From TrEMBL:
The keyword Membrane does not apply. This is DNA-binding transcriptional regulator IlvY. SUPFAM superfamilies: Periplasmic binding protein-like II (SSF53850), Winged helix' DNA-binding domain (SSF46785). NCBIfam families: PRK11716.1. Residues 1-58 form the HTH lysR-type domain. The lineage of its organism: Bacteria, Pseudomonadati, Pseudomonadota, Gammaproteobacteria, Oceanospirillales. Keywords: DNA-binding, Transcription, Transcription regulation.
């Protein structure tokens, strides 16, 4: 069975969109369709439901996806082992992170890694950091960057990279609001404040707990995916937000918001790398992981 065909199938299983998959894999839609049909003929069953509106995996397709992930991983491990005599690591490493991480601390990591391992291609995907663990657990990514949860999922390894304070922010254009909310928090001051919060993740959990301790439920104006969107909406005056300090340090809108000195403060969190424990011995993952954790 062609490894490249398995890689095409895995990409399609993630996007569930033939057009998007063909662009990501640099293959024509017709060639992609032929490759999928050939796979189905080889395994003797339908792997995907498709019609003019949607694509979805069949039950057999979900089982085949697990096989394909393991087969591609095993192939890369064997291929790299056979290349060991040349002492040059080659291949692809998928990495998931937020937009902020991609142009802050991760920039230096990737620059150093590229210098040490020029034959390893990094496939960088950006999105909501709250999905970091989920994407690693699902096998969608080799490594992901995110905040360490209170309870680590079984089978996930974490390597801390930095710590970041979690901050309340207000529009710079509304100094009276910022002044009213600064200092020791009270239910009267915060009961009607429009909040712009993450849909999910550690920041949302800690903010919800902070409001519960005040005996309040936050008045949600908007729930968004990604910290950069929170900064943008706050800068436009739509409400109060909660974001990590690292986001503000790298935001082009930092001069349009104001950090609130609120007591009690939200608990800071660790930002670092996630990977499956069982895959830490794979050559490419090991190379990236140990570059961040020498010795």
């Amino acid at each position: 069975m062609d490894i490249r065909a398995l890689e095409y199938f895995l990409t399609l299983a993630e996007t569930l969109h033939f057009g998007r998959t063909s662009r990501l894999c640099h293959i024509s839609p017709s060639a992609l369709s032929r490759g999928i049909r050939q796979l189905e003929q080889e395994v003797g069953t339908t792997l995907l439901y498709r019609d003019n509106r949607r694509v979805s995996l069949t039950r057999e397709g979900e089982r085949f996806r697990d096989y394909a992930r393991q087969a591609v991983s095993d192939w890369n491990t064997v291929r790299l082992a056979l290349q060991d005599d040349q002492r040059v690591l080659r291949g692809e490493l998928s990495l998931y992170c937020s937009v902020t991480a991609s142009y802050s601390f991760l920039h230096d990591m990737l620059s150093s890694f590229r210098a040490n391992f020029p034959r390893i291609e990094i496939k960088l995907h950006t999105g909501d950091p709250a999905q970091a663990e989920e994407r690693v657990l699902a096998g969608t990514e080799d490594i992901a960057v995110g905040a360490r949860p209170v309870q680590m999922p079984n089978g996930i390894a974490f390597h801390p990279v930095t710590r970041s304070a979690l901050l309340f922010i207000a529009p710079a254009s509304q100094p009276q609001l910022a002044e009213r909310l600064s200092g020791k928090a009270s239910g009267n001051a915060w009961s009607d404040v429009p909040m712009i919060l993450s849909e999910e993740g550690l920041a949302r959990e800690r903010t919800d707990r902070w409001f519960r301790d005040l005996g309040l439920r936050p008045q949600i104006y908007a729930q968004v995916s990604g910290n950069e969107a929170i900064v943008s909406m706050v800068s436009l005056g739509f409400g109060i937000g909660v974001v990590p300090q690292i986001v503000l340090d790298n935001s082009p809108l930092a001069n349009r918001i104001r950090i609130l000195d609120v007591q009690p403060r939200l608990e800071a969190y660790e930002v670092g790398l996630f990977a499956l424990e069982k895959r830490l011995g794979e050559p490419l993952i090991d190379a990236f992981w140990n570059q961040q954790n020498p010795g």
